[in-house]
Amino acid sequence: MAGADPVAADRPGQALTVGVGLHVAHPVTEIFRGVLVRDRLNTHISRAMCDLIAERAWLTVFLLPAYSSDLNLVEWVWAHVKDSLANLAVMASVRLEALVRNRLKRLQYRPDTLDGCIAGTGLTLDTPTSP
Questions:
Q1: pLDDT value at position 52?
Q2: SS3 for 42?
Q3: Where are the alpha helices (H) located in 1-131, listed in sequence order?
């Protein structure tokens, strides 16, 4: 909406930031450290939000990087599914749904294809260790 107040748009985010501060605004703040992870939505990086965060020395903020589809495994899987449907003419959405479900089901039995999608991202899967 043109002319909308970007600060007002993120009132819930600001209220959360202020609210957490109210709960820890006592001597515990000397040992308390908060971490806030935010995306790059314009209200999340606005001057008002930056000012609120700057007033809270106990709060560490991490901004997520811009979206990168080549690091998203889901994008690789959907690309594979779409490629398998590329030359099909479907007359009804019910039929298209059935074909997509079929292609996804097939992928469950092709771990090498899924491993290839993971390898395409350049990321690795680590086996979690028990505490």
A1: 84
A2: coil
A3: 6-9, 11-23, 47-54, 73-84, 93-108, 111-121
Residue 18 near residue 52, CB atoms below 8 Å: yes
SS3 34: strand
Task: List average pLDDT for each run of 10 residues in the chain, which is 131 residues long.
Answer: 46 54 48 73 82 83 76 83 82 84 90 85 72 57
C-alpha span between 74 and 84 (Å, rounded): 15
Measure the CA–CA gap between 40 and 68, rounded to whole angstroms: 13
What pLDDT score was predicted for residue 31? 58
Q: How far from chain centre, in Å, is Cα 82? A: 23
Give the C-alpha separation, 63 to 45, whole Å. 9
Its pTM surpasses 0.70: no
- Structure tokens that stand for 95 in this block: 């039929």
DSSP 66-80: PP-GGG-HHHHHHHH
Angle at 109 between CA 82 and CA 67, to 5 degrees: 45
Q: How many CA atoms lie within 13 A of 20 on its CB side?
A: 19
